[in-house]
Amino acid sequence: MMNKTAAHRRNGGFTLIELMVTIALAAALMTISAPSFVQYQRNSELTSLTNSLLAAINAAKGEAMKTGRNAFVIPLGTGWNSGWVVYVDMNRDNTYTEGTDITVQKQDAVKSYFNITGNSIAAGSTPYIKFDNTGYSTDTGAAPVALTLSIARNDTPSANAAEESRRVVVARTGRVRTCKPSTDTTCTSSATY
After folding, report:
1. Residue 15: exposed, middle, or buried by beta-carbon count in 10 A (0-12, 13-18, 19+)?
2. Under a CB-based contact definition with an 8 Å cutoff, are residues 145 and 131 in contact?
């Protein structure tokens, strides 16, 4: 009986060769799956960023209707990549005055592999999105205006550009929607609804 127990103990573990083969297979699988994981993670971040921008725009619209004053979404710096602030314009000067205007929310700068661009009043040297007390998207002269913000990954080949981008479309009526250019033919940079 002693011999059977000793023999059983020797056969119960892994040999060095078995362990090395297992580690090599695991390394090969990780090498194959790592790029897919990064792609998955960045697409998830793209969706999250799109939803954050959509929520900010909807918050501005809701605050404008609730308070009866103009509400804005503006970049924190020179462009949308630097983040944005949502505020209610309490002194009606169409500019953000911290301490005077009501700050609804702020968003930090986006990651370097994203680029956000706008058209219409959401572009230019002082881009903005404005809602009046009726919830309509307007310019500073109170004329209804439609606009589009495009969010794209800049770390992918141009062949994948439509797949790796999203758009936030604000209609003149204040209706806000998101879309994906690769699956929606109405999802252009000049979309109005």
Report:
1. exposed
2. no
Matching residue, tokens 């993670």 = 41
Put the strands of the sheet holding 147-153 in their side by side order.
114-118, 147-153, 165-170, 176-179
Give residue-wise pLDDT tens across range 82-125: 999 999 999 999 999 999 999 999 999 999 999 999 999 999 88
* Contact yes or no for 169/177 (Cβ under 8 A): yes
Q: Fold for domain 41-179? A: minor pseudopilin epsh fold (3.55.40)
| Residue 176: strand pairing partners | 170
pTM above 0.70, yes or no: yes
What tokens were used for 107?
A: 């968003």
Q: Where are the domains of the chain?
A: 41-179
Integer Cα distance of 47 and 35 in angstroms: 18
Residue 71 contacts residue 77 (beta carbons within 8 Å): no
